[in-house]
Design a protein that fits this description.
- By secondary structure, the chain is α+β, with helices and mostly antiparallel strands.
- The protein has a single domain, classed as CheC-like (Chemotaxis protein chec).
- The protein has 7 helices and 8 strands; from the N terminus they run H-E-E-H-E-E-H-H-E-E-H-H-E-E-H.
- Helix 1 runs antiparallel to helix 4 and helix 3 (about 85-95) crosses helix 4 (about 105-130).
- The chain is globular, with a radius of gyration of 17 Å.
Amino acid sequence: MPINFNQRQWDILREAGNICAGNATVALSHILFRKIELHVPRLQLVELDKMEKIFTQNSNPLIGIHMETLGAVEGSALLIFQEESGYTLMEMVVGGLGKQTRVVTQIGISALKEVGNIVISSYLSTLSSLSRLPVFPSCPQFISGMPLMIMKNAFNTLERTASHAVLIETFFQEPITAVSGRFFIAFDPLSIKRLLKAFENHKR
């Protein structure tokens, strides 16, 4: 049974999501030494068994980083790229490779893990500061494959404990190289209710 949110609660969650996504984008910009364009995050309550529709809009293989959110707020975070963008990002981070590669190397995986760790940790650190709740990430996991497989692997834990989740989706792009990616973070409704209570207590 999903939890219903009123408009004020959605506004609070949207504002927090914007701040967190903005800080995560700044962190990514610092890693790459480039300006990153951020699209306004989209917030929605989704049925977990229908979440695949969001991911199967594109049938091309993806690569990315997955991390669980731990502490007072349980959920999953996913930073994904089309393969072309993912490879380019690896080269931008590692640097000095001399030519573009389309083979995933251990150095490339480590570079992408570092990017994912910094971006997702920045998001969760901001969320923790806003709510004053302990929220932290698990170790980053490299994932690759078709969208549906990635979705099932990333959100498998949530599917076992809840029927619905609050999903925050952000699209970002580096305009010069056209590197672009999508950032998803999903929390189970009970964790969101805990966040809302913390936000409201903090504003008093």
